[in-house]
Amino acid sequence: MKPLTEFHVSPKRRGGRGSYCKPCFNERSKQSYAKRVADRDGREVRKNVEVPDGHRFCPDCERILPLTPDFFPRSKNGRQGSGGYCKPCHNARGKESKQRLHGGSRQYHLRRRYGIDQEIFDAMLADQGGVCAICDAADPEHVDHDHRTGAVRGILCFNCNGGLGQFRDNITYLDRAITYLKGHHTWRWVLIHPGVYQRRSPAWGPPPSLSS
Length: 212
Hints:
Shape: elongated
Radius of gyration: 34 Å
Structural class: alpha+beta
CATH architecture of the largest domain: 3-Layer(aba) Sandwich
CATH class of the largest domain: Alpha Beta
Number of strands: 8
Number of domains: 3
Protein name: Recombination endonuclease VII
Strand content: 15-25%
Distance between the termini: 116 Å
CATH superfamily of the largest domain: His-Me finger endonucleases
Strand order of the largest sheet: 1-2
Organism: Catenuloplanes nepalensis
Largest sheet: 2 strands, antiparallel
Oligomer: single chain
CATH topology of the largest domain: His-Me finger endonuclease fold
Helix content: 25-40%
Order of helices and strands: EEHEEHHHEEHHEE
Pfam family, one: Endonuclease_7
Mean pLDDT: 88
């Protein structure tokens, strides 16, 4: 005998309460769900594992680990802000999904970030003669795109792609860099007095008069 408050509300039952107390009702529901899953899909339902506070059970590797960012990845949609699988298992599942759905991590990256696949990448590289579109280095691997519009521009080597990024795709900065490399800002040692030299830049103009 238990108080009615220990029973779930059920408008279809006499007295407005279920026939089983809450713990028994929950246990029967779990058993019923496990049987339906087994009959329908032929698989077993994951069993609940008791874990201490501040820890989580990873169902893939079956380890109980501290619930910290060192062991579980962050997830806005996950319980307590963390994913349901430890980092190694999370990464393995992600790799398997990319391979199964996209044919590999490379295909996934190309499609997600640039909207192309490996076939289009290979065709673009062939149009460039198999070399970087800027420095002619062989076998470039990086897709260059317009950061403002997202349009793909060509295939570059690591150095050229990184260089454009560092200059923020700014033509003015690149023109100034070319002028700089031509030596218009090169420092030189200039004779300003017999036996006395001064390090000067051409931007400073001619050295001072030696008449004095």
